[in-house]
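tmp note - Osmotically inducible protein OsmC
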Amino acid sequence: MAESTASVTWQENKAFMGVSPSGHNVQIDADKEKGASPMELILLGLGGCASYDVVGILQKSRQDVQGVRCELTAQRAETVPAVYTDIHLHFVVTGNDIAEKQVERAIHLSAEKYCSASRMLANGGVNVTHDYEIIAG
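out:
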């Protein structure tokens, strides 16, 4: 089993500095003008994980991908703990002659097999859904 180490250090008030296992600093703050909140980072992690998979799968299937954007919409429970209950990922794929079947396949493989963030959230009871649009490059 692979081990990862990270750290989060309190700075002041509700501000923290996170250091990722790869050594990157991430500002975490309740003040959204100063940093991302912990729950925002969960959304970004899911979007990054899924997008990484989708781009890689499309490239391996020889699609002329010029851009991928993942727009996430999330709903949270109204009571504490205010966990995510539903997260929707909308992929906007830009490129030349992108095959719809390949985009569907890439999203499905990411959601069901490769994206550990998606699997972890879905297995924890979050309803994770997906759709996409293709824009000619």
